[in-house]
Design brief:
By secondary structure, this protein is mainly beta. The protein is built from 2 helices and 7 strands. β6 and β7 form a beta hairpin. The longest helix has 11 residues. It starts with a helix and ends in a 33-residue tail after the last helix. The N terminus and C terminus are likely disordered.
């Protein structure tokens, strides 16, 4: 872990884990990012250098080992979490950085049973490629 990675985790808000993340839509990886995944108040959020989102457990469905895409028949990658209410098949792949795997897995299991606060506002991850002047993040990548 670099000094930059450690700076992302401040410990001041919920349970935080430094992660690498990929967003996959219709079996195409549309972007990758590195940042902090956090859990607080029944929500799971991601804050990276180019993307962010906040979702409730009811928005997500972690995949079980050996589960396959319904269309392609290919297995989902390790760390894949389905976005249940996305307008098209989409999922995020979350890989905790070295040394944070066990803590992340335990916290994700607890999150699956949590309910968000009634007025919790949620933000979906981007589901299409985009480029900004200062962050050319979600560039098309190879198929997942």
């Amino acid at each position: 872990m670099t000094a930059r990675d450690q700076a992302l985790v401040d410990g001041g808000f919920g349970d935080q884990f430094p992660v690498e993340l990929a967003i996959v839509v219709q079996a195409n990886t549309i972007g990758v990012d590195r940042g902090v995944l956090w859990f607080a108040d029944g929500l799971m959020g991601f804050s990276g250098s180019a993307a962010s989102f906040v979702l409730a457990s009811s928005d997500l469905e972690p995949t079980e080992k050996g589960r396959h895409h319904p269309r392609s028949g290919q297995p989902y990658p390790a760390g894949a979490i389905l976005l249940k209410r996305a307008p098209q098949e989409a999922y995020v792949v979350i890989i905790p950085l070295k040394g944070h795997e066990a803590g992340y897995e335990a916290r994700l299991k607890r999150f699956e049973d949590e309910s968000p606060t009634a007025d919790a506002e949620r933000f979906w991850p981007p589901l299409h490629c985009y480029v900004t002047d200062d962050a050319p993040f979600l560039e098309p990548a190879v198929s997942a």
